[in-house]
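Service request form, structural biology core

Requester: graduate student, group of Dr. S.
Request type: structure prediction, single chain
Budget code: on file
Notes: please return the result as structure tokens.

Sequence provided:
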Amino acid sequence: MIRSLLWRRIVRSASRRVLEREPLRAEAMTGRRGEEAAYWHLRERGFIMVNRNYRPKDSRGEIDLIGWEAGTLVFVEVKSRQSTAVRAPEAAVDREKESLVKAAAREYRRQARCLAAPFRFDVVSVEMSPEGERIEHFRDAFR
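Core staff response, request fulfilled:
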């Protein structure tokens, strides 16, 4: 357990250094921090994460996180916001975004040769504030 906590601190520290090194717009930085928070949130809940920011060739779609949970391949779209004054982060996943993620997931499943494996699409909403992060996980969000 102590070894696991130490390893998690080392990895988080390294990822923060990478995030801080690259000059990004505020929105992009919020997105990266949200994806990092979602990644660790899912790992702590037993997901085995296998890919991040998967983008197939010849596609506009991207999948933020891909992992396994109890034999199910899970494609995760992460939405992050600094403020929810306008709308909740998960509300930004519209039909067009859903279609792009589904197309990318088809290509991933074909390339990974796991067409027969059960799969689903989740959305993780990350709201960041000075008090901390609030993470909400919506399972099977594209049903």
